[in-house]
């Protein structure tokens, strides 16, 4: 009989905790955001938004989470990666849902990629601060 391999997954409860912490950080910064948390397959586990947050930010937050979960790296690191590789610079920006500015962070546990969190609505730096608050809430 073949052995089944177990895997770690991001629980919806943790996804919700991360989203709530990101929203709380946005409240501190006095910005209105959308926040999405996805599992390693890019499927949404949690989504929250402030009333009155920019409409386009909804999909951008989802795409930041998706990009981070897809590649296991922050979305804000992509400009330097693309700059150093002309082929990637030509091809990757044409990929649907690919985001190259700050606000998306991978969610990892014990060096295992579990998903991503994406925030949109403020500046790239504010979005990343909110996403980081979400990570800190589930890693503490």
Automatic annotation (TrEMBL):
<dbReference type="InterPro" id="IPR005624">
    <property type="entry name" value="PduO/GlcC-like"/>
</dbReference>
<dbReference type="InterPro" id="IPR038084">
    <property type="entry name" value="PduO/GlcC-like_sf"/>
</dbReference>
<dbReference type="Pfam" id="PF03928">
    <property type="entry name" value="HbpS-like"/>
</dbReference>
<dbReference type="InterPro" id="IPR052517">
    <property type="entry name" value="GlcG_carb_metab_protein"/>
</dbReference>
<protein>
    <recommendedName>
        <fullName>ATP:cob(I)alamin adenosyltransferase</fullName>
    </recommendedName>
</protein>
